[in-house]
Amino acid sequence: MKIWLDGKLVDESEAKISVFDHGLLYGDGVFEGLRFYNGRVFRLEEHIRRLFDSAHAICLELPWTQEEVIKFTCETVAANGLTDGYIRLVVTRGAGELGLNPYLCKTPSMFIIASTIKLYPEEYYQNGLAIITCATRRPAPAALMPQVKSLNYLNNIMAKVEAIQSNALEAVMLNEQGYVAECTGDNLFLIKNGVLLTPLISDGALDGITRAVILELADQLGVPFKEKSLTRYDIYTADECFLTGTAAEVIPVVSLDRRKIGDGKPGEFTKRFLKAFHELAGSTGTPVA
Ligand code: PMP
Fold first, then answer.
1. By CB distance 3.0 to 4.6 Å, which of 2, 98, 167, 247 could disulfide with 79?
2. What's the rounded mean pLDDT across residues 229-250?
3. Structure confidence at residue 122 as a pLDDT band (50, 70, 90)
4. Which residue's C-alpha comes closest to atom 11 of ligand 1?
5. What percent helix, strand, coil does the chain show, rounded to 5?
6. Burial letters for 68-103: b for 16+ Cβ neighbours within 10 Å, e otherwise?
């Protein structure tokens, strides 16, 4: 496997970064996860824009333009001869000293991995996930800005640990006020009386690229939608529920905290969104070569 690292495509065994890198020492950096289908990277420009926004928000200025990063991403996919898969693009603060001061890190590092990912076994896309609410809360925006896709994912990992320890694959995370924010790595959607509902970004969700695609598709499919504060009650009493994310794509949820959602099976709206998402993802995107 060829990895893009700081301007060069190198062999996996040579793709190494310093133990003094603040990305490793402090989780100081940002990242993106992207997918490519049929040799085309889906929503590439949106992902790179979000990467640059995340970096800018943490005072990390990249020494490349967005156009250059787009080019490097496509080159990495092409160099690995893949047509379908997942890209992990990571920007770290760079090597510095054993202290917090990020200004002592002279140059950010960037690496790009083009590989594959399987987040959930196929049967869950057919039958839906049974998920739980976890005790780990999304940090308040004044603590860790939820829109920043930073390397500091310990909060999400603790939530995932709770899910797995409860024999679930995903967990709903609430914000400090008790409103639903999102799941550990996915955004959450409900269908209630024919209306598509999803939490506000300001309730602590990541501004998901797949989330935005679903809202676009809702327009195209003629499904009315609302972004609003949601509680667990709204999920328990919804007709349908599904999660979205670049790695997860669109996956149905059939229960929360052992309360059946709707009739406990993936619903018709969910199936329509799943199909429309795959049609769009399979037929659009930036060609890698
Ligand atoms: N929330 C979190 C916390 C995430 O890490 C992700 C990405 N895996 C998402 C939501 C979904 O965002 P996207 O659709 O842009 O992948």
1. 2
2. 98
3. very high
4. 245
5. 35, 30, 40
6. ebbebbbbbbbbbebeebbbbbbbbbbbbeeeeebe
User: For the chain, where do the domains classified as CATH 3.30.470.10 start and end?
Assistant: 2-115
Kindly give the number of the ligand 1 atom that is closest to the alpha carbon of 187.
10
Q: Note the CATH architecture for domain 2-115.
A: 2-Layer Sandwich (3.30)
- How many Å lie between the centroid of ligand 1 and the Cα of residue 182? 9
Average pLDDT, the chain: 97
Q: What is the location of CATH 3.20.10.10 in the chain?
A: 122-283
Using DSSP's 3-state secondary structure scheme, residue 18 falls into coil
Q: Does pTM surpass 0.90?
A: yes
CATH of domain 122-283: 3.20.10.10
Which residue's CA is minimally distant from atom 10 of ligand 1?
A: 186
Can you name the residues that pair with 244 across neighbouring β-strands?
187, 250
Q: Which two tokens stand for residue 230?
A: 């949601």
271 catalytic per annotation: no
Whether 42 and 34 have beta carbons less than 8 Å apart is answered as yes
